[in-house]
């Protein structure tokens, strides 16, 4: 996420609101591949929105020079944690991984 925010700044973007994440973007694809390697799980409807908001938070922090502070990402994680969905019950099943195969 940090890499993409820095890239946007280096490309001359001025405001976080100019950042948009499409469902076919590289960032979306990379994150889905990382967390959903075999595409066994349907991507939640608000995933793209959360990715976009996270990218914007990183952008704002870097643009504001917060990345010079030691624990600068903590405030970002607090903001994006509010966007989390509850964990679906089927993830809590002891047989969850077997159900995917």
From TrEMBL:
Q: Source organism's superkingdom?
A: Eukaryota
- What are this entry's molecular-function GO terms? DNA-binding transcription factor activity, RNA polymerase II-specific; RNA polymerase II cis-regulatory region sequence-specific DNA binding
Residue ranges occupied by any Prospero domain in the UniProt entry: 1-101
User: Which GO BP terms, alphabetically?
Assistant: cell development; nervous system development
- Keyword DNA-binding on entry: yes
Locations listed in the record: Nucleus
Which Pfam families does this UniProt record tie to the protein? HPD
User: One GO term of the cellular component aspect?
Assistant: nucleus
What keyword terms does UniProt attach to this protein?
A: DNA-binding, Homeobox, Nucleus, Transcription, Transcription regulation
Is Glycoprotein one of the keywords UniProt gives this record? no
Protein known as: Prospero domain-containing protein
Which species is the source of this protein?
A: Euphydryas editha (Edith's checkerspot)
Taxonomy of the source species: Eukaryota, Metazoa, Ecdysozoa, Arthropoda, Hexapoda
